[in-house]
Write a structure and sequence with these properties.
With 202 residues, the chain is α+β, with helices and mostly antiparallel strands. The chain contains three helices and eleven strands.
């Protein structure tokens, strides 16, 4: 006593359900074929090269630099009267060939009672004629000691970030020379990183 239209309608319903079930089972393997890590290739971090410490035995300090830098310590004492060119035997030189930057450091005995502003003024006078020195300096520190920092531009193609400090009986002069073609904001950032790593060892 079933209605004649009910049986075809039931067949259509069953067929539709079976088709939906097959489509669902066919999509699942496709989703499983994609590895979960394939969508996040940029999340893996490569370990950076460890920094290294460079020590100047002549001038009693150390700085922390990346592995690209190399060091040549001073072999003769600096008299504190003149800032010679890069590579002077009286300077401790640290060079990064990848960027062309050179960090130079030296120290000399100063008269008892010399003030930091007086030492900085002496270093401005000690600069070579090719150097144009900024008239003002900002207060900072070097290895826990008060320091004065300023900039200069050399006509031979360098931006220079300079720093003067007093420690014990010595006056210290530190500067970073970078090619003028470089972004000077990056030069200053590099100089500040070096300054923060600086430690007196004597």
């Amino acid at each position: 006593m079933h209605p004649t239209g009910a049986f075809p309608l039931a067949l259509v319903t069953i067929a539709a359900a079976a088709a939906a079930g097959c489509g669902s089972s066919q999509r699942k393997p496709a989703a499983q074929e994609t590895p979960p890590t394939a969508t996040h290739p940029a999340t893996r971090k490569q370990p950076g090269a460890p920094p290294q410490k460079f020590i100047s035995r002549r001038y009693g300090f150390r700085v922390t630099l990346t592995k690209e830098w190399s060091e040549t310590d001073a072999v003769t004492a600096w008299n504190g009267h003149k800032l010679q060119g890069l590579g002077s035997a009286a300077f401790a030189d640290f060079t990064d060939p990848a960027t062309g930057r050179t960090l130079v450091a030296a120290a000399a005995e100063v008269p008892q009672g010399m003030s930091l502003p007086a030492w900085r003024a002496a270093m401005v006078r000690a600069a070579p004629p090719i150097s144009s020195e900024s008239s003002s300096a900002r207060r900072t520190t070097l290895g826990g000691e008060p320091a004065l920092a300023w900039t200069s531009t050399a006509s031979d193609g360098y931006h220079v970030h300079k720093l003067a400090a007093l420690h014990g009986t010595r006056g210290y002069m530190i500067f970073l020379a970078s090619p003028t073609a470089d972004d000077d904001a990056k030069n200053r950032s590099s100089f500040e990183s070096i300054r923060r790593s600086f430690r007196f060892t004597g």
